[in-house]
Design goal:
By secondary structure, this protein is an alpha/beta fold. The chain is built from ten helices and seven strands. Bound molecules: NADP nicotinamide-adenine-dinucleotide phosphate.
Length: 265
C-alpha cells in the first residue's frame, strides 16, 4: 500500500496571521490543508497559492469549537490519503471586558477553540508527525506570560497554550518531533474587532506585521526552537515581566484593555 502523502495543516487560515502562515509554508514548498469556517476565504487563498505554481491547498470548512472537529479533520485527510507532517494551531480569538460581566458562553467557546481544539489537534497526529520528522507550531501570545485583567480568560488560555506546548516540546523531542510556541505581541488583524478591543490597540510600538510574525514562526519551527517571540520590543517585555511587581502589571494591563469599545459598537 502506498504511504499517505505528508501535508501541513493550518487552522484559522482564512484571515490574519493564519493566512500569512499559509503563504510562508507554501512558499517553502509545503503542501497545505487550510481549515476554518469561512470556506470562500480559504478557497480564495488556495487559488492565490495555486497561481504561484505551488500545489493547490486542500480546503476544509470546519468549526473547531465542535468537540468532533479534530476527528473530522483526521477522517477528511485519511479519505484523501493525506496525513499531517506539520500541524499549525493558529485559530483563536479573544474577548475584552471584565470576565464577570461579558458573555460566559462566549468565554467558554474561547476555551473550546484556544485550548481544547489546540490540544486535540496537537495530540491527534503525533504518529504521522513522527513518521514524517515534522512538528507542531502552536500560536500563543505575549499574553501567555502574565494574567490579563479585562481579558482574563483569553490571557489564561494563552498561558495554557505556552505551558502545554513547552512540555510537549520536551516530551516529543526524543521522537524527532519539533514543537514551537509562537508568542506574538500586537498584530493588526481581524482579532481586535472580534475581541471588542479599541480601534488602534494593535497600533503600538510593539506591533508587528502578520507576515513578519508568520516568517519568524516558520523559521523558529524549522530550527526546533521551543518559544518564538517576534520583535525585540516583545522579547524585552517578556523578559522583564517576571521582575515587575504583579500589582503594577495588573494596573498596566487593566488600563490598556480599558480602552475598549463600548458594547455594541
Ligand atoms: N492579532 C493579534 O494581536 C494577536 C496577538 C497575539 C496572538 N494572536 C493569536 O494569533 C492567532 C491568529 O489570530 P489573528 O490575529 O490572525 O486573528 P483573526 O484575523 O481574527 O483570525 C482568526 C482565525 O481563526 C479562525 N477561527 C476563529 N474561530 C474559529 C472556529 N470556531 N473554527 C475554526 N476557525 C476559527 C478564523 O476563521 P473563521 O472565522 O473563518 O472560522 C480566522 O481564520 C490567534 O490564536 C490569536 O490569539 C493574535
Amino acid at each position: 500500500m502506498a504511504a499517505s502523502r505528508p501535508v501541513t495543516l493550518i487552522t484559522g487560515a482564512s484571515a490574519g496571521i493564519g493566512a500569512e502562515l499559509a503563504r510562508v509554508f507554501a512558499a517553502n514548498g509545503h503542501t497545505l490543508v487550510l481549515a476554518a469556517r469561512r470556506e470562500d476565504r480559504l478557497q480564495a487563498l488556495a487559488d492565490e497559492i495555486a497561481a504561484t505554481g505551488r500545489s493547490r491547498p486542500l480546503v476544509l470548512r470546519v468549526d473547531l469549537q465542535r468537540p468532533e472537529a479534530a476527528a473530522d479533520i483526521g477522517a477528511a485527510l485519511a479519505a484523501q490519503d493525506l496525513e499531517p507532517q506539520y500541524v499549525v494551531n493558529n485559530a483563536g480569538f479573544g474577548l475584552s471586558g471584565p470576565a464577570a460581566e461579558i458573555d460566559r458562553t462566549e468565554q467558554l467557546d474561547m476555551i473550546d477553540l484556544n485550548v481544547r481544539a489546540l490540544t486535540d489537534l496537537s495530540l491527534a497526529f503525533v504518529d504521522s508527525l513522527t513518521r514524517h520528522h515534522g512538528g507542531i507550531l502552536n500560536v500563543a501570545s505575549v499574553a501567555a506570560f502574565l494574567p490579563g485583567p479585562r481579558m482574563a480568560v483569553y490571557y489564561a488560555s494563552k498561558a495554557y497554550v505556552l505551558s502545554f506546548s513547552e512540555a510537549l516540546h520536551h516530551e516529543l523531542k526524543s521522537r524527532g518531533v519539533r514543537v514551537t510556541t509562537l508568542c506574538p505581541g500586537p498584530v493588526k488583524t481581524e482579532f481586535q474587532a472580534r475581541a471588542g478591543a479599541a480601534e488602534g490597540q494593535a497600533a503600538s510600538v510593539l506591533s508587528q506585521p502578520a507576515i513578519k510574525v508568520a516568517q519568524d514562526g516558520y523559521v523558529g519551527l524549522m530550527r526546533g526552537r521551543r518559544v518564538v517571540v517576534p520583535g525585540w520590543g516583545n522579547k524585552l517585555v517578556t523578559a522583564l515581566i517576571p521582575f515587575v511587581p504583579r500589582s503594577l502589571l495588573f494596573r498596566v494591563v487593566d488600563a490598556r484593555q480599558g480602552r475598549r469599545r463600548s458594547p455594541g459598537t
